[in-house]
Design a protein that fits this description.
CATH class: Alpha Beta
Structural class: alpha/beta
CATH architecture: 3-Layer(aba) Sandwich
Shape: globular
Strand content: 15-25%
Radius of gyration: 20 Å
Largest sheet: 9 strands, mixed
Strand order of the largest sheet: 3-4-2-1-5-6-7-11-8
Number of domains: 1
CATH superfamily: Survival protein SurE-like phosphatase/nucleotidase
Oligomer: single chain
């Protein structure tokens, strides 16, 4: 069963309000007066993680950009590439952790392991204000988000009650490495604006509603990836599975695996539609597997009268 994230309407209202004024395509004098967008003086303490590895270009760019914006940033990320690990967490009796430089910790595990270690040890006794996961190489939309280690790192934070944002850079087409790395710069420029907006609206309160995170997907605009997105949209996770695996028997007990993109019609209002239109998709998410009261009622009717 595909994971659904059911959130109250107020979450979408908060998300939409937070997006107003973060890009020229959505700014308006009525909804985003200058006074309302000024960020508080105090910087945020940010735990920065990802699934591409602690030394990947996306997380290093994120560290530099968020630090330049005045935040106190600490990297606690996987030692090696952990793309596609989703919410997996290791259950080993020990874990290797390196501390190669100040403000950087490399955990030999998944993004979830990294966040768990960071919250328990690096930020022991004083949780960070925010966990940022990414920016990831390639999109985390539709079913890709369900299996994303970048999103998994954000989910681990939400499970511990810490606000979280997952950041990804890419479109639905096969990624061009150079264009993707270039597009990480506008991705992080937007992330700084979004975080400032959350800080401004939160004042001294929480950055986001309890248990809610944001999955942010920035498109690649222009052949070189340096273009500006056409707008910002509050979206939901498109239910489609865009990748399809095919298996070929090699005859020796192994199977060759090939993965192809399976184009499907994008759901209206979903993250795939927004990114495909050159917009930044911002989808609220939570860390549980609940599907909502309607499905609960259906399940109750299904098991009515059954006995052990």
């Amino acid at each position: 069963m595909r994971r659904k994230r059911v959130l109250p309407p107020t979450v979408f209202i908060v998300c939409t309000a937070a997006l107003a004024g973060t890009a020229p395509a959505v700014a308006s004098p009525q909804t985003a007066p200058a006074a309302s967008t000024a960020a508080p003086a105090a910087p945020l303490r940010i735990l920065l993680t990802n699934d591409d590895g602690y030394n990947a270009p996306g997380i290093r760019k994120a560290f530099d950009r968020l630090t330049a914006a005045g935040h106190d940033v600490t990297i606690v990320a996987p030692l090696t590439n952990q793309s596609g690990t989703g919410t997996k967490m290791m259950s080993a009796p020990s874990v290797a952790v390196k501390h190669p430089e100040p403000k950087v910790w490399a955990v030999d595990g998944t993004p979830g392991d990294s966040v768990a270690f960071g919250l328990s040890e690096v930020f022991e006794g004083h949780a960070p204000d925010l966990v940022v996961s990414g920016t990831n190489f390639g999109p985390n939309v539709a079913a890709l988000a369900t299996h994303s280690g970048t999103v998994g790192g954000a989910v681990a934070a939400l499970e511990s009650g810490v606000p979280a944002i997952a950041l990804s850079t890419g479109g639905m087409a096969a990624p061009d490495p150079t264009a993707t790395v270039n597009a990480m710069d506008p991705t992080l420029d937007f992330a700084v604006k979004l975080i400032d907006r959350l800080r401004s609206r939160a004042k001294s309160g929480p950055l986001l509603p309890k248990g809610v995170g944001l999955n942010v997907n920035h498109p690649i605009v222009g052949a070189d990836g340096k273009g500006t997105a056409s707008g910002v949209a509050a979206t939901f996770q498109d239910p489609q599975a865009p990748l399809q695996a095919d298996y070929t028997d090699s005859g020796d007990g192994t199977w060759k695996v090939t993965v192809q993109v399976r184009p499907q019609q994008a759901a209206k209002g979903g993250d795939v539609e927004a990114v495909s239109a050159g917009k930044i998709a911002v989808s609220p998410m939570n860390a549980d597997w609940n599907t909502g009261p309607a499905d609960f009622a259906v399940t109750s009717a299904l098991i009515a009268g059954l006995r052990p």
